[in-house]
């Protein structure tokens, strides 16, 4: 094999297929299974074979592939967004390639960037962390849209939920039930959305006239185990909280487990509210009151924005913020009589008929991809 100039024949030989099949796979033509296509793409990257994208662009052709990169696959938050992007992409006859990224894996960085530059018409990044990918992709004129994290990456379009407004809804809901000892279990505050939720908690506590208590704010890592540990500490305080707001649903599950282990009950003794409304939130016992992220709408908005960029529309600074929604289930109730200090009586409350939604400052444009 000529290592300096690998050919289509080299790709086909390694894959054990004909050159015609390899060409079909590389150019997203019919008659090739997704498994074969993915394998051919990976082989091409490994040996350094480069498809002539310039010629494709000059002829008006596209690869028909949207890349999805994410630092995680092992939780329902990422899974819901990946599924949503896949559905929205298929509705406009695009396929998706999903890759997980790890900050310490520099060799994977180079291979992934090479792969995306060669074969992806555009990239959707879920919870992006490092700018190395995006700087390289921007230099190669590959459009990128971010979901749920922007931070310093302000030159790229992004889609997110109204994290600040959603967290305000959570605190206000608990306050309406008479709670004044409201704890907050934060997460990794390098994530913009988590910072917004923490800021909303602080602002809501102040504006509702609830005394600040630094002992009621603790930090987890958005995992169930860390939240369990954090909640266990909160419940041992001399004046423990009557309600706990967890920065995400996984953390809320850990809180419920800690309350149960301490011999208390949710919501009779402690109210718990989360953030995300992943599918498991409605299946745990008690069913979790939470702030809903509109995963499918976020995914559609990201794909639509990406397609507009692929078509040549200027979307570099676009930021789409979708409203969050309070979903009242069984894990929140009125403050216990023994802790109420004049508040309304304790007990579960009925689910709200009209859900409350946040009012983000930026209203998203009409989505052109209709996916149910």
Give an overview of the whole structure.
This protein is an alpha/beta fold and 372 residues long. The chain has a domain at 163-293 and 324-357: Response regulator (Rossmann fold, 3-Layer(aba) Sandwich). Helix content is 39%, strand content 15%. It contains twelve helices and 15 strands. The chain has helices at 8-15, 19-26, 34-47, 53-58, 76-91, 106-119, 132-139, 163-176, 192-207, 224-235, 249-261, 295-310; strands at residues 65-70, 95-100, 122-126, 144-147, 158-161, 182-186, 217-219, 243-246, 271-273, 290-292, 319-322, 325-327, 333-334, 347-348, 356-357. The strands form four sheets. Strands 2-1-3-4-5-11 form a six-stranded parallel sheet, sandwiched between helices. The protein has a four-stranded parallel sheet with strand order 7-6-8-9, with helices on both faces. Strands 10-12-15 form a three-stranded antiparallel sheet, covered by helices on one side. The chain is elongated, with a radius of gyration of 24 Å. The model is unreliable at 342-354 and 362-372 (pLDDT under 50).
Quick overview:
With 372 residues, this protein is an alpha/beta fold.
């Amino acid at each position: 094999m000529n290592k300096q100039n690998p050919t289509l024949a080299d790709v086909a030989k390694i894959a054990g297929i004909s050159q015609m099949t390899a060409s079909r796979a590389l150019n997203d033509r019919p008659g090739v299974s997704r498994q074969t296509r993915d394998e051919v793409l990976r082989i091409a990257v490994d040996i350094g074979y480069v498809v002539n994208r310039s010629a494709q662009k000059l002829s008006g052709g596209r690869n028909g592939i949207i890349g999805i990169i994410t630092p995680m696959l092992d939780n329902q938050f990422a899974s819901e967004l990946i599924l949503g992007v896949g559905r929205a992409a298929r509705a406009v006859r695009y396929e998706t390639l999903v890759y997980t990224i790890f900050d310490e894996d520099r060799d994977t960085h180079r291979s992934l960037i090479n792969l995306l530059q060669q074969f992806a018409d555009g990239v959707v990044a879920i919870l992006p962390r490092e700018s190395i990918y995006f700087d390289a992709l921007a230099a190669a004129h590959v459009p990128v849209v971010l979901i749920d994290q922007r931070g310093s990456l302000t030159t790229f379009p992004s889609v997110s939920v109204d994290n600040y407004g959603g967290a305000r809804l959570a605190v206000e809901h608990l306050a309406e039930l008479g709670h004044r000892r409201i704890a907050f279990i934060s997460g990794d505050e390098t994530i913009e959305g988590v910072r917004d939720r923490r800021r909303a908690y602080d602002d809501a506590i102040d504006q509702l006239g609830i005394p600040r208590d630094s002992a009621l704010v603790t930090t987890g890592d958005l995992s169930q185990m860390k939240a369990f540990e954090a909640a266990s500490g909160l419940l041992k305080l001399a004046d423990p909280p009557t309600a706990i707001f967890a920065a995400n649903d996984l953390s809320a599950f850990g809180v419920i487990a800690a309350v149960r282990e301490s011999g208390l009950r949710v919501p009779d003794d402690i109210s718990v509210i989360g953030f995300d409304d992943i599918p498991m939130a409605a299946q745990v016992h008690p069913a979790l009151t939470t702030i809903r992220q509109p995963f499918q709408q976020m995914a559609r908005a990201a794909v639509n924005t990406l397609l507009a960029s692929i078509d040549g529309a200027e979307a570099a600074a676009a930021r789409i913020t979708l409203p969050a929604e309070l979903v009242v289930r069984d894990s929140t109730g009125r403050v216990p009589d023994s802790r109420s200090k004049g508040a309304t009586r304790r007990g579960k409350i009925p689910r709200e008929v009209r859900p409350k939604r946040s009012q983000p400052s930026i209203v998203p444009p009409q989505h052109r991809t209709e996916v149910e």
